Structures are given as C-alpha cells and as structure tokens.
Amino acid sequence: MQAGFPEVSTIVQEAASCGDHAALEEFRLRWLGKKGEITTLLKSLGTAPPEERAARGAAIHVLKEAAQSAWDTRKVELDQAAEDAALHAGWVDVTAPSMARPLGRLHPITLLLEEVIDHFTGLGFEVASGPEIEDEFHNFDALNIPKDHPARDVWDTFYTDRREIPRTHTSSVQIRAMQTRKPPIRVISPGRVFRNETIDATHHASFNQVEGLLVDRHVTVAHLKHTLETLVHKLMGRRLETRFRPAFYPFVEPGLDLDVQCVFCSGVGCSICKGSGYIELIPGGLVHPKVLASCGLDPDEWQGFAFGMGFDRMVMMRYGIDDIRRLYDGRLQLVRQF
Ligand SMILES: [Zn+2]
C-alpha cells in the first residue's frame, strides 16, 4: 500500500454500511466523484516523483476498482431491499393466525320469538304464515270489519296503488288458517305488520305481532285466560300480576285486554305505564260468530279464542328497551334483562 493512501478494506466497509441510497450517493461523491478522494489522488500523480508514478498509479487503480465494485454491490442490495419493501407493503401473510372477530348475536325479537314458538308448539299449536300484502277480505271483511265501518278507521292503513293492503295485523293469517284447515285448529302467526303511524318511542310504522287462534268445541274465556297467563309467566320468567279488562274488537265477542304488572316500576306507577302500574299487553277474546261463519265454520258447532300480541312491546319489556326505534336502527345494545 502506498503511504497516505486509504485501505481498500476501509472503502469496502464504508460502502457496505450505507443504509440507504442517499448514503450510498454520499459514498460515491466522496470517493469516485470529480472532487472525490480517488480523483484527487489521480490528479496528484503528475506531481509525484517519476520513479513512484507507476506504483502509485497502480495503487490508485486498485482503490478505484474496489470503490466502484463496492458501490455496485451495495447498489444492487439496496435496490433489492427497496423492491422487497414495496412488495411487502401490500403483503398478505396467509400463514399468520387470523384476527379474532366478535361473533354476532341473535336479535332480541328473534330470541323471544323462538321462545314463544317453543312455548306454543309445546301446547300443540303450529306456526302459520301468510302474505304481508293482503286483500281487503282477509285484512278486514272476514274479520267482521265491513267497508265504510268506522271500526276500519282504527287501523291506520296503508294502501297500494292497486288497493292492496300491507297487512295491518296478522289476524289475516287466522282467516287463512280457518279457510284451509279443519277444526280443531291451533295456530300462532308471527309476522310483520304495517300501520301509518308517526314514528316515536312507542310507535313504529312497521312492527311485529304474534297472534294465536284456537278453534274447537266448548271453548270459553277461561281457556284464553289460562293460555295468556301461562304465556306471560313463562316469557317474563316470574309471576307478574295480570288483569283482564273488557274491550271492543270487531272480530271477538266478548273482547278483552290482558294487562301485565309494569316491570319497570313493579306496579308502583311510572311514566312508561302512565302511573297505572300496568302495561296493556295482549288483546284477545272469543272469536266472533260472524268471523267463524265468514270462514265457513258453523258458530253453533265451533267456538274459538284469539289473541294478538304487540310483540315488539313484549321484547322491550323483556329486555328493558325503552324506545321501539332501537329495535330497528341496527345499533341495539342490551340494557338489562328482566
Ligand atoms: Zn310502571
């Protein structure tokens, strides 16, 4: 090695330790650039003693070759690293363990409906379904609600352009059940119904009902009363106080309402039960003889009871949901379960 010359190994190590392209460019300028150290050494050859020029020239050439080679090597390595980094930016490691996803849960309406269906099928009822778009006969006429009868106004009814009705209750399914089955009949009909209601905390334009119908011989109010009380106790998980009040519905005679002790205040009186201590839960009654007759059943031979639950209200009571809109807005959280 010439005196005052850098070591080849020093140059090679310096190139290899360049962490990125910018550092490598600095290396190139420092050694190989026009004002770099090797170029400066080359320029100094002219002033060297003539007898040393050949040896110095050869040594400088070795340095230059080494610097160029080290630069080339490091350049390839850094290019490859940059290419790998770009590739890995969109990399999917198919061997990595999968991320845990929280499992969904069944909707409270579905949960409670499964319980109701389980309860009634255990009593020998079957589940019946019918179309959500009905005709006037099944939705009104056959239920003893003739055209232009004021009772029809009670149901805030939607109509389609063709005078079809998005059903206002699942009672229409009871009519279909009586038309297609022979007594004794025991059916429940869960499903969505539609009313032209202003949507607020306790009303929705689309909600769920579960209706029940039993047709047999010698059916009395006592059968209905027992059936509903058993249902409430089963669904609410405890023996809530119940009471029956007379009520008018065109398709039953006598008609009644089942009230249940308010679960929010345990009967003391609160804003939800409007201070009464009770929540009106299930209307029902004995099937009106005219309804039986409109379905081709002889009222002198057959009697029946029917009831209809505003099912959403029951779900709200069961799960402590205080706003019906929360059942349908997709951001439902369980508050408490009674
Ligand atoms: Zn209350």
Describe the structure.
With 338 residues, the chain is of the alpha+beta class. The protein is built from ten helices and nine strands. The strands form two sheets. A seven-stranded mixed β-sheet has the order 1-4-5-9-8-7-6, with helices on both faces. It has a two-stranded antiparallel sheet with strand order 2-3. Strand 6 and strand 7 form a beta hairpin. Helix 5 packs across helix 10. Bound molecules: zinc ion. The site of zinc ion has 7 residues, from loops.
Topology summary:
Elements: H1 8-16, H2 21-31, H3 37-44, H4 50-89, H5 108-122, E1 126-127, E2 133-134, H6 136-139, E3 165-166, H7 171-180, E4 185-194, E5 206-216, H8 221-236, E6 242-247, E7 252-261, E8 278-287, H9 289-294, E9 303-310, H10 311-319
Parallel strand pairs: 1-4
Antiparallel strand pairs: 2-3, 4-5, 5-9, 6-7, 7-8, 8-9
Helix pairs in contact: 1-4, 2-4, 5-10
The structure holds zinc ion (ZN).
